[in-house]
Structure formats: C-alpha cells, structure tokens
From TrEMBL:
It catalyses: FMN + ATP + H(+) = FAD + diphosphate. One of its GO terms (molecular function) is riboflavin kinase activity. Keywords: ATP-binding, FAD, Flavoprotein, FMN, Kinase, Nucleotide-binding, Nucleotidyltransferase, Transferase. Pfam families: FAD_syn. It comes from the Bacteria. Pathway: Cofactor biosynthesis; FAD biosynthesis; FAD from FMN: step 1/1. Belongs to the RibF family. GO terms for biological process: FAD biosynthetic process; FMN biosynthetic process; riboflavin biosynthetic process. This is FAD synthase.
Amino acid sequence: MTAVLRSAQDRSMLWDGLDEVPVDFGPTVLTIGVFDGLHRGHRSLIAEARRIADQRGLPLVMVTFDPHPARVLGLPKDTATLCSVGQRAELAAAAGVDAVCVLRFTRELAGLSPEDFASVCLADRLDARAVVVGENFTFGARAAGNVDTLHEIGGELGFSVTAVPLLPAGDAPCSSTYTRQRLREGDLAAATQALGRPHRVDGYRVGSRVDLTEDTALPPPGRYAAVVNGRADVVDVVGAGTLRVENSHPGDGPVTVHFHTRAEDKS
Ligand SMILES: Cc1cc2nc3c(=O)[nH]c(=O)nc-3n(C[C@H](O)[C@H](O)[C@H](O)COP(=O)(O)O)c2cc1C
Ligand SMILES: Nc1ncnc2c1ncn2[C@@H]1O[C@H](COP(=O)(O)OP(=O)(O)OP(=O)(O)O)[C@@H](O)[C@H]1O
C-alpha cells in the first residue's frame, strides 16, 4: 500500500475529484456516501469496511459528495452541515480510512445512471475491488440505484458489495437527519450520543459576535454551556448563523465551539 492519511494534519490523501487520484494508486476498497458528521453509524460502516480492506490487503478509500446532493437537487431536506468537508476527512482518517476522494456533486454528476456512475467513479480510476455501504444506500439519477443494483453492477465491473446493517440511535437508525433533528429540538444529549462527541461549529469572532463559517446545524436560540477554543464558556445562539460568546476570552479571530448542554436562558 502507498502512503496513508494517518493524522488530521496529513492531508496528502485528500483528493479533490477523481483527477487527483494518483494513476498508480492501484486497487481499492471503497465506502460511499455523504457522511456529514461522521456519526456513530458512519463509523460502524467504516469499521466494517476497514476489516474487509485489511482482509484483502487493500487501502480503504471513502468516496464522498460535496455539496450535499439534496442541496444541489433542490430537495426539501435540511442540509445544514454537521461538519465541514475537511473535518469529515479528518474524522474519517481517525476512524481508519486511508484516503478520501471528494466528488463535486453537480447536476451533471446527478444525471449519471447507476451503471455510468459505478463505471466512471468506482471502477475506472479508483479500481474498486470491494464496495461497502449501508443497507439504505442509493445512487444514480433519480436515486434509482440501491444495494441490489450495486450487486449486479459490481458483478460486471469486478467488485464485491457488502451492505452493512444500520446502527440504531434509540428507536431510529443513527443518521445525519436524526442528528440534525435532535440539534434543532435542543436535545443536545441525543445529538452528542449520535455523533459520539459534542457538536462542533466554526466561525469568526468580532467582539462578542461569532458568524459561522458555513451553514451549520444549530440548536434553537438560547443559552448553552460550551467549550470555546478549548475553554469552558457560555454561548448564546441568537439566530441563523450567529452566536454570541461571553467576554471571558476576548480577541477577534477564528472560533471553534463545542456545544455541551442547554444553560439557563437569559431573562
Ligand atoms: C450519480 C448520482 C446521481 C444521483 N441522483 C439523485 C437524484 O436524482 N435524486 C436524489 O434524490 N438523489 C440522487 N443522488 C443521491 C443519492 O440518492 C444518495 O443520496 C447519495 O448517493 C449519497 O448516498 P447516502 O445518502 O447514502 O450518503 C444521486 C447520487 C449519485 C451518486
Ligand atoms: N446508521 C448507519 N449505520 C451504518 N451505515 C450507515 C448508517 N447511516 C448511514 N450509513 C451509510 O453511510 C453512508 C453515508 O450515508 P449518509 O451520509 O447518507 O447517511 P445518513 O446519516 O443516513 O444521511 P441522511 O440522514 O442525510 O440520509 C451510506 O453508505 C449509508 O448507507
């Protein structure tokens, strides 16, 4: 196996599109999906994919889409992010992925049939020998491809398919949608449980105001106990994309906030 993405600092194996995959990279095991938040369900999928990759002595590559397909297709779905693509790659590396290939999800990509997508994006440059997805995985124009379709196509293109059962979170499957819903309701305990860590948002601070770097999922307006740039603090969610932080850590600049629990609301 060639070099691997071993740490958050090592971005050498983060490929922006198929063109950045080294031509001599060789055969791979792939796992595919959006993976927003890299929640516990995603990590259980990656653990299984890692096991298969080790069995075969092949590198494990995560193929992920950006922006979220539903955003590009204009579907009525909450697509506020649970983490940036960079964080997705770092969390994937920590979970055992060797390389991440980010496919720009465009209307052109969305128009590919399941067969064409598998041929161009999985078999050609990435030379997939095994593909590992959750049992609810769909792909291809009009989301017409599913795990059964992928099995059939894999038979022709030379890769095996493993469909992993969905890890639950309470009564529902653990999912990005579930996690966003719990956050939106202010159920930080359930969101933290699904993510396996406190929800993180990044922004830029000027005075006490923090503007978020991207359209990130937030709990409802109110006051929260949080960790801001590594130190315990109190944060007010004041509206879409904006927070206010206490003045305990003065200074303008980049801010990382981890939400812990709801605090007493301001009166
Ligand atoms: C080539 C391609 C075309 C797609 N076209 C559609 C589509 O027309 N409608 C849709 O709802 N989703 C579409 N999707 C998104 C998939 O249904 C699915 O969300 C995506 O493959 C990520 O899988 P995941 O949701 O399991 O992470 C498409 C995906 C791919 C790869
Ligand atoms: N709970 C889970 N357990 C195992 N695999 C999962 C789980 N949830 C999703 N997957 C798989 O992870 C990959 C990425 O899926 P995706 O990011 O769409 O998951 P999701 O959390 O269900 O997202 P959304 O809620 O937006 O549909 C897919 O192969 C999917 O089948």
